């Protein structure tokens, strides 16, 4: 039974608190929250009617005093809160209806609506939304968009294995309609032995993480031994050959006793070109020159690399001081 008269002060205060609490909970959520009562919107309407009656009584009895102003502010605040809550809940109901209609068959992440915890007026609105979404899907041919269509599938409906038609149980010629059963396609449960990956998907996977390009581990190349010459009689056995060379150990022993050991050629690393400079300004911090840490003070003479010297000269920190 729905109440039609003004609410008592206790019930009015309870409904007002429930209204503000529902708005706080609905603000940051995309799905409709559970309402504190089934007749929620009816109670909100009765609350505003109760305040309206109090405003008229106060105006005719006491005039436009402070209590009347407080009642008017309270009424405006409740109306604004109800307007904001209704807007957010209708958007949430629309999103829930569209998501439940367009979700795939295996997607169970969306919780169905429990209408024992919502207002019946919202259920009517939700049912109308579902009908409108279905009309939209029929108008745009949503089944053809998702499953595709072709000349060989025109007028042919697909069904699960084991589906039979009513004409099979009819003894009349031509079946129930007289024109025979309609064409029926049974979906076979076939599995591909080999999954063929699309070329675009492969390219998308390769380009998914461009920031990691160049960081993949590179396989180490096989080291090969190249022998250009022989300075020792035992060195041929290190050469990569299929046939093992025959060694003359007598000649080897004689060479070891008479010849001096051959020194391996050392790689000569040319010294970097150095330059003599005089420091003009004292540097507050030490700088690294090669493997040494040097403190630059005005008047000091240093030998540094050509590139570092040019940098210090261009920075007016030092000047060239040739001998």
CATH topology of the domain at 9-103 and 110-142: Methane Monooxygenase Hydroxylase, Chain G, domain 1
Q: Give the overall silhouette.
A: flat
Q: What is the C-alpha radius of gyration, as a whole number of Å?
A: 46 Å
What would CATH call the class of the domain at 9-103 and 110-142?
A: Mainly Alpha
Poorly predicted runs are: 190-194, 215-235
Task: State the total count of DSSP E strands.
Answer: 7
CATH architecture of the domain at 9-103 and 110-142: Up-down Bundle
Number of helices: 8
Order of helices and strands: HHHHHEEHHEEEEHE
What percent of the residues sit in helical stretches (DSSP H or I)?
Answer: 40-55%
* Average pLDDT, all residues: 74
Strand content bin: 5-15%
Which structural class do you get from the secondary structure elements? mainly alpha
User: How would a crystallographer describe the biggest sheet?
Assistant: 3 strands, antiparallel
Q: Kindly, what is the distance between the CA atoms of the first and last residues, rounded to a whole number of angstroms? A: 112 Å
List the topology elements.
Blueprint: H1 9-26, H2 40-61, H3 66-102, H4 120-140, H5 142-147, E1 157-159, E2 184-186, H6 199-206, H7 249-258, E3 274-279, E4 287-289, E5 292-294, E6 301-305, H8 306-314, E7 318-320
Parallel strand pairs: 1-2
Antiparallel strand pairs: 3-6, 3-7, 4-5
Helix pairs in contact: 1-2, 1-3, 2-3, 3-4
Summary of the model, kept short:
It is flat and about 120 Å long.
Question: What would you say this structure looks like, in words?
Answer:
This protein is mostly helical. Among the domains are: about 10-105 and about 110-140, Methane Monooxygenase Hydroxylase, Chain G, domain 1 (Up-down Bundle); about 275-320. Helix content is about 40%, strand content about 10%. The chain contains 8 helices and 7 strands; from the N terminus they run αααααββααββββαβ. The protein has helices at about 10-25, 40-60, 65-100, 120-140, 140-145, 200-205, 250-260, 305-315; strands at about 155-160, 185, 275-280, 285-290, 290-295, 300-305, 320. A 3-stranded antiparallel sheet has the order 6-3-7. Strand 4 (about 285-290) and strand 5 (about 290-295) form a beta hairpin. Helix 1 (about 10-25) crosses helix 2 and helix 2 packs antiparallel against helix 3 (about 65-100). The model is unreliable at about 190-195 and about 215-235 (pLDDT under 50).
